[in-house]
Please model this.
Amino acid sequence: MKKRRWPIVSLIFLLLVGASIWYWIHLKDQPKASFATATVKRQDIEQTVLASGTLRPARLVAVGAQSSGRILSMKVALGDEVKAGDLIAEIDPASQKNTLLTQRAALEKYEAELMEKEASLVLNRKSLDRLKQLLDKKSASQSDYDSAVAEVDVTVAQIRQIKASIEEARLAVESAQLSLDRTQVTAPIDGTVLAVVTQEGQTVNASQSAPTIVVLGQLDQMTVRTEISEVDISKVKVGMPVHFTVLGDPEKVYHAKLDSIEPAPESISSDSSISSSSSSSSSSSSSSTAIYYFGNFTVPNEDGKLRTYMTAEVHIVLGEAHQVLAIPSTALGPAGPDGAYMVRVQDENGAVAVRRVEIGLNDKVMAEIKSGLQENERVVTGNIEAAKSSDTKSGGRMGPGGPPPMGL
Model:
């Protein structure tokens, strides 16, 4: 009986040894189920709205000509610094000078007529006084006296008419002088010449609108006009902190606060209810495009590094937290009805358990942890590549020792 058992035991032993060798050769290098993890640590978190902005001078003025004529000389060049009142350009003043001389001559004519009529009034009044004395002595007729009275009244009326003409002539002289003065185009503000629109020798016509000579801007302060998407506009409020960078110097961060938000997008100017020229086709096409509202804020620019029409990458800060517990947003599982999230936590032995956590700010990269985790704990952010490959081959089912499904 014992002799019969020996071959069976030997066969079982050989099978076990063979299986061990096969496992050692084929399975010892197979990846074990393992997971990418991250440590719960303290850091700053900032939740922002990303927008694009355009830099403009805080004050931007198009200096125009109010008199017509040929530009005799330009007194400034591109990039010049000017003060308020400095001469920008000179327009040929010949026509304005002639008009001024004509109006002054008309004024002198009316003033001479006034002197003549005032002298006549004195003479007519003296004649009236003599006739009154003669009429009292019955030495003059009543008709002669009445004619003298009428002559005085007519002269008084003529004097009033001439005085009105003199006032009109004086206003004409002032207007002519103003037109002559306007041939000297001066700077209305301190600033930098950003553009020279009209060249020396060019003729300008100011009869309908003031043609632009130069464009001035104050560059010591820059206004950032920021396009805020309609998706984000409801989150943004005046007074929120903002910071931005420019393409030419992405390391330099500028900080400010949002000063204003325009109540309507620029496209309102083409609305069919206020613009007779807009068509139904244009309004329907504009409705299919993205809508942006403009927010504005101002930053100092003493060093002059910020230039007109630079593009700014603007971050409007919705909320910020400093040195709070945080984990990668990819570690968050589904949220429950109470707003709590499920997170997989791995202990020192590699065992994984699901825990409910309460989060605060979430910038889509890192999430603030308000409760449910401790500093230096490790959370699962995902399976490493080998585990993912193994998981795919097995139909997506977790192998032995894997984490329990989220939500349990």
